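Researcher: First entry.
Model:
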Amino acid sequence: MAEATELIEASTEISASPEKVWSVVSDLRRMGEWSPQCRKMFIRGNPIGVGTTTVNINRRGPLVWPTRAKVVRYEPNQAIAWRVAENHTVWTYEITPKGKGVVLTERREAPGGRVTALSSTLTEALLGGRAGFENELKVGMAESLGKIKRAAEA
């Protein structure tokens, strides 16, 4: 195991109901529309719920790599989360009602501030190092949340 920032997160306010926002974030097949890195999620199992697995195609410039994940939290109109097998991080979208809308938070958690040695080695060798890559993830979260906001408010 290697070091990682334990929590990276970003939030946005959305003028839409929890149900509307949920309909957007829980449709994992649309992840490629929102994420600048995860370009496609192939879902294994229907309907989506705890235990559903995915195969994800990630892209950064000319680099393309697959990951596998398992849904570990599924609370309709509240939260969905999945754990990435290759690095043990957990990605979550959490919906919190606020006024006439919601706050949508996206987070990446590295439990105990650790990722796999393989993930760390590849991040250092191919993705510009941990600090730069984690900053890129934070910027990407803001981009994803902006796209989800536009879709939910449309």
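Researcher: Second entry.
Model:
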Amino acid sequence: MGSKPPADPAYPGVLQKICAKVVIAGPLAVGKTSMIRALSEIKPLTTEETMTRAAADADSLADVQDKTTTTVASDFGRRTLDDKDGGLVLYLYGTPGQKRFRPLWRDISRGALGALVLVDSRRLGDSFEVMDMIEEQGLSYAVAFNKFPDSPDFHVDALRDALDLAPATPLVTCDARDTASSLDALIALVEHLLADPSIPEGSPC
């Protein structure tokens, strides 16, 4: 991933873009769909549906009682990071946050180069299972705290300790509704992946 993209044989001297799959993960109601909507340069595909009584009984909505819709399959968007070396096209896959979709989560994450984990500081405990799944898949990841209006104001070191993150794992804050803020979080993940020589390269687009 850190090497220079190959030249496009159809256009000598023009560098090809590199395509890579990235997972946007996190527990229920953490802002994954909002982030993909904010980031995507194309009209995003979303699979949000109205939450029914059965879903409300199955999924814990503690501290998020105002949530009325939920992702039932996967969200999808695309974001191009252009640079002088041809650029990187990221295919963004948002995962459902409910435990019962764990088999689907494994399918979605297959072939991804890394993951951006969204965390809600009001519900830190909900994030551990997601990070466990990512680590089981062998994916490198970065963590982004999505700040809500009533989010506790924790120091970043306290948040890192609470999540038991490795020193090299990036930890940033963001507003998942805001494009610039979400892009900063995505770039933190990409820079983390670029710095790891064990991460395979993406594919020419």
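Model: Note on the second entry: The chain has one domain: 18-196.
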